[in-house]
């Protein structure tokens, strides 16, 4: 696991992970709640922070930050839905816009800087693998989190309950999560969840939700087996990638034949470079569920990162097709294609990366690979523009100016690429001067 995040992300103290399956699972839970709040789901950015703390917060506009510790401390999708509903209450209630002073400014700056590093990093060794992590500390992130008043917390609770009910969901999951926090409030400060410091918990808040749950009707209190399976797989995947492999293997024992357990063990063995155990496990899951994109993706990742580049292309291609061209998975296939060194592969990689960057413009890895693909195909102005985008993502302002200027001067006048390059030149120059002034 490489620490390749930009300095700004490390200073902000945020360690991000990107993974198509994890993001899809959380989106499936969050989307009905965003719609219930009359928010456009596409306008709410969800960011996952690699940290064992039980925490979540909103900030920097319509951005929802969820810690992996919160995910792994929850038992079911209903509990996560309760947290997301509460945080959505903060967004819909405009609470962020009411927080003034230095805390708001410091938090906004930290988040804005850290967001530039979202797609940088690795899981299992590759900066372009399915789950990408930008390493950094947690102290500054915790200092910058938004604290809300008791009144705002109560308001977010009530709004969250409304959103759950509008989505046909019980507030039982919210209650269960609050009860977890209520138990944590008895711990000494150093052992408490940071969620308690940013979201003050009071016994009366628990009682209010208890009363609501006791009077509910016409809403479902439990996840479907399919929803629970998706959630259990997400947790298994997170533990497989983030916990030490030995701990994962102790948690998901060899005699556990469930899908999440085999998935977690496949990841743990892969991280130990034990392909004799990893590949049979993941291929067994593929045999049972041949249309599952994330199993194909993991097989491709295992093969690619162990030097079997040509063998990795077929599973990566199946992952792209069965995921309906998920951008993060497309980037994995594109990298494998580029590594083959074949001209035809560069053309396919360009197509994949153009679509991926159009759908996810903040993926710095995709821009870097697109620059490489263009360069090897002899499309140098386009390569310069892609590398300008990449350098702007990672705060390398001097190089961004150089590459954007080169693109601007060599692309057709008035073309979309030339206009974008011109904008990047001016933007990168401003950021460069601001960075110099802060030194």
Automatic annotation (TrEMBL):
Residues 21-211 form the Peptidase M48 domain. InterPro entries: Mito/Outer_Membr_Metalloprot, Peptidase_M48, TPR-like_helical_dom_sf. Coiled coil: none annotated. Binds 1 zinc ion per subunit. Keywords: Hydrolase, Metal-binding, Metalloprotease, Protease, Zinc. The keyword Cytoplasm does not apply. Belongs to the peptidase M48 family. This is Peptidase M48. It comes from Tistrella bauzanensis.
């Amino acid at each position: 696991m490489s620490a390749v995040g930009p300095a700004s992300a490390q200073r902000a103290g945020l360690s991000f992970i990107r993974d198509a399956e994890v993001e899809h699972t959380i989106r499936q839970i969050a989307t009905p709640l965003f719609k219930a709040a009359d928010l456009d789901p596409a306008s709410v950015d969800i960011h996952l922070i690699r940290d064992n703390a039980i925490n979540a917060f909103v900030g920097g506009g319509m951005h929802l930050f969820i810690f992996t510790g919160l995910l792994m401390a929850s038992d079911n999708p209903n509990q996560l839905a309760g947290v997301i509903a509460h945080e959505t209450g903060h967004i819909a209630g405009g609470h962020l816009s009411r927080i003034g002073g230095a805390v708001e400014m410091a938090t906004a700056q930290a988040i804005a800087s850290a967001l530039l590093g979202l797609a940088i990093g690795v899981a299992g060794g590759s900066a372009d693998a399915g789950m990408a992590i930008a390493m950094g500390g947690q102290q500054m992130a915790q200092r910058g989190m938004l604290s809300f008043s008791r009144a705002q917390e109560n308001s977010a609770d009530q709004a969250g309950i409304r959103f759950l009910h509008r989505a046909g969901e019980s507030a039982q999951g919210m209650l269960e999560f609050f009860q977890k926090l209520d138990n944590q409030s008895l711990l000494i400060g150093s052992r408490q969840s940071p969620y308690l410091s940013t979201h003050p918990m009071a016994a009366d808040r628990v009682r209010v939700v208890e009363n609501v749950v006791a009077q509910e009707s016409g809403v479902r209190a439990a996840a479907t087996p399919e929803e629970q399976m998706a959630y259990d797989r997400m947790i298994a995947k997170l533990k497989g990638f983030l916990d030490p492999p030995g701990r994962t293997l102790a948690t998901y024992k060899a005699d556990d034949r469930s899908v999440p357990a085999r998935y977690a063990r496949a990841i743990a063995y892969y991280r130990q470079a034990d392909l004799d155990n990893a590949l049979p496990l993941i291929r067994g899951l593929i045999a049972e569920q041949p249309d599952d994109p994330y199993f194909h993706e993991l097989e491709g990742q295992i093969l690619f990162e162990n030097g079997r580049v040509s063998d990795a292309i077929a599973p990566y291609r199946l992952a792209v097709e069965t995921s309906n061209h998920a951008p993060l998975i497309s980037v994995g296939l594109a990298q494998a294609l580029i590594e083959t060194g074949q001209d035809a592969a560069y053309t396919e990689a360009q197509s994949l990366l153009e679509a991926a960057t159009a759908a996810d413009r903040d993926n710095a890895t995709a821009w870097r690979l697109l620059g490489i693909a263009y360069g090897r195909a002899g499309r140098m102005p386009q390569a310069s523009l892609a590398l300008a985008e990449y350098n702007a993502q990672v705060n390398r302002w001097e190089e961004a100016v150089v590459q954007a200027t080169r693109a601007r001067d060599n692309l057709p006048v008035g073309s979309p690429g030339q206009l974008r390059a011109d904008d990047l030149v001016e933007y990168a120059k401003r950021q460069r001067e601001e960075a110099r002034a802060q030194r």
